[in-house]
Specification:
Elements lengths: L1 E5 L2 E4 L4 E8 L7 E7 L6 E7 L6 E2 L7 E5 L5 E6 L8 E8 L13 E2 L3 E6 L1
Parallel strand pairs: 2-11
Antiparallel strand pairs: 1-3, 3-8, 4-5, 4-9, 5-6, 7-8, 9-10, 9-11
C-alpha cells in the first residue's frame, strides 16, 4: 500500500484546510487509515482515523467538532477537513495505513506511511 498526502499550507487561525491522502495498492476493508501530526520537538500523534470501509471513525479530543475524516465514494482518497484551525494545529501531517484495527492510536501500528504535508496556522 502506498500513500501520498497533500493539501497543507499556511492559514490564519479560524481558517480551513482540506488534506488529501491518495491510497494505491491492495488495500482491504480491514485496513485502517489514520492522520497523524508532528509538531516541532514533539512526537507524532494520532489526529483521526477510520476503517477503510468508512466505519469506526475516531478523533482525538482536541480536534473533535473541528476536523472531519472521510473517504471519497469512488476514490481511493481519504480526506481530512480541518475547520476553525488553531495555532496549536501546526505541524507536519501524515497519513498512514494499518492492516488491522488493533491499537491504531499508536503510530508504530501503521505499516505504510505517506510523506508529510506541512500545516502552519498563524495567530
Amino acid at each position: 500500500v502506498q500513500l501520498q498526502a497533500s493539501g497543507g499550507g499556511l492559514v490564519q487561525a479560524g481558517g480551513s484546510l482540506r488534506l488529501s491522502c491518495a491510497v494505491s495498492g491492495r488495500i482491504g476493508s480491514n485496513y485502517v487509515v489514520g492522520w497523524f501530526r508532528q509538531a516541532p520537538g514533539k512526537e507524532r500523534e494520532l489526529v483521526a482515523r477510520m476503517s477503510w470501509n468508512g466505519g469506526r471513525i475516531y478523533y482525538v479530543e482536541p480536534v473533535q467538532g473541528r476536523f472531519t475524516i472521510s473517504r471519497g465514494n469512488a476514490e481511493n482518497t481519504v480526506y481530512l477537513q480541518m475547520d476553525n484551525l488553531m495555532p496549536q494545529d501546526t505541524g507536519i501531517y501524515y497519513c498512514a495505513a494499518a492492516r488491522t484495527d488493533i491499537l491504531t492510536a499508536i503510530a508504530s501500528r501503521y505499516e505504510s506511511w505517506g510523506q508529510g504535508t506541512q500545516v502552519t496556522v498563524s495567530s
